[in-house]
Specification:
NA-bd_OB-fold; Cytochrome c maturation protein CcmE; 133 residues; alpha+beta; heme; OB fold (Dihydrolipoamide Acetyltransferase, E2P); five-stranded mixed barrel; heme binding; single chain; 2 domains; CcmE-like_sf
Length: 133
């Protein structure tokens, strides 16, 4: 095999790998999360697939058990509610009635089993004093 042919094959491999990474990145970005309403409406489509679900964390539903390190709460969006069970440390952020994204899958008991919880802190996005941002 000539040196020129090996170089061409290597270049095609690199271009193919880059194209694959770009397409995967575009796909992941386009489905960053779904709302609770969308998740509920299309639950059959998701099945046991790991999904990121976004909604408002209802403060009246928050129950933390420090002995088992479990946090139970409900996310709501568009009139749909999703009960969530998160196993892990209690978030440090002020999360009552805040936006949140839970990553996980639906359990057999109808409760979303979250492996990761991200609190969307609205105070980080407040407009600057004087009305300018």
């Amino acid at each position: 095999m000539s040196k020129k042919l090996r170089l061409q094959i290597g270049a095609m491999f690199v271009v193919g790998a880059l194209a694959y990474m770009v397409l995967q990145g575009a796909h992941n970005f386009s489905s960053y999360f779904v709302t609770v309403k969308t998740y509920r409406a299309e639950s059959a489509k998701f099945g046991q697939q790991t999904v990121r679900v976004q909604g408002t964390l209802l403060s009246k539903t928050v129950h933390y058990n420090p002995h088992t390190a479990t946090l139970r709460f409900s996310l709501v969006s568009g009139g749909a509610t999703l009960p969530v069970l998160y196993r892990g440390a209690m978030p440090n952020e002020q999360f009552h009635n805040a936006g949140a994204i839970a990553k996980g899958h639906m359990g057999r008991d109808g409760v979303f089993d979250a492996t990761k919880l991200e609190i969307q802190c609205p105070d980080h996005y407040a407009p600057a004093k004087g009305g300018r941002s």
